[in-house]
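This section describes the prediction task in plain terms. A model, or a person checking by hand, is given the sequence of a single protein chain and must write out its three-dimensional structure as a string of tokens. No templates, partner chains or ligands are provided. The sample shown here is typical of the held-out split.
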Amino acid sequence: MTIATSVYRNYSPAGQGIGVMPLVENARVLEIGFGSGDLLRALLARNNEVYGTDVSERIVETARENGLGNVFLVDVSETPLPFADDLFDAVYCYEVFEHLTNPYRLFVEIRRVLRAGCPLFFSVPSQEYSMGYGPGRHTFVYPGLLERHNLERFFTQMYFKIEAYRENADGIIHHRNYRLTNMKHLGLPDVMEVIIGDYPVPTLYGEILDAQSLEQEIDRETQPYFDVLEGVVQAEDWHSFDSIAGIILRYYPEHYMLHLKMAEIALRAENREKARHLLGNILTMAGLPESVAAEIRITLTHI
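The expected answer:
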């Protein structure tokens, strides 16, 4: 038995109860970490077929004694969920994630048992407000993961799309609440496969992130290449410039803003021939905004 299972096998229910997110109706629903059972009972009252899992033997036994069926003893960090693929129309998971030794496995299992395009209602305490070690505070197994930016990147990497976000407070504990959509129908590689592969950001997340978030992720992904480009032009190492630029061109052939950044670097280094070549390539791109094309033509007449 792991330390985590030993610690939580007889814990006292806490958290948000039925939470603050919508309750589905007329569906087959799973709650992971059902604790007090309040949410399961609220979902039953809305004509749902409900299932629950928890790591605490006492909690599962009590739920069965109180008439809740379809409840199972499961440590989701260690054990697969005991359900078939695509069984559920919705999954609820409140105040569980921060306790897990293997949060990746939780999301793999949720993705498996939840039908494509269906919702995951999810909550965690906010690290920025709630992290602590004393009375009334909240300790996290992986604290950096609970920062909002990192948590939402994790959702994206697991192919869950953020549809709604809400914050609320319970005493001194602040909660982050999400409605996520399971995007597994896209058939994209698991993040563990991405680790050993090379993929452009739009291929992985183009249908999951909104336009602004996608641009931010592309900028984050490509900035190290541009940092290298700035260094090699100072050394007048144009062979290395071409090598690094070739990587960007291969993975983002139609992303004109990246090409413009490369042309600007070449111009600042007074390599007009390189800048002309890059700007000329941009003009051949399909869907290039005419306003951008016009500015490039003007620039080309002056270099």
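For orientation: The domain at 205-301 is CATH 1.25.40 (Serine Threonine Protein Phosphatase 5, Tetratricopeptide repeat).
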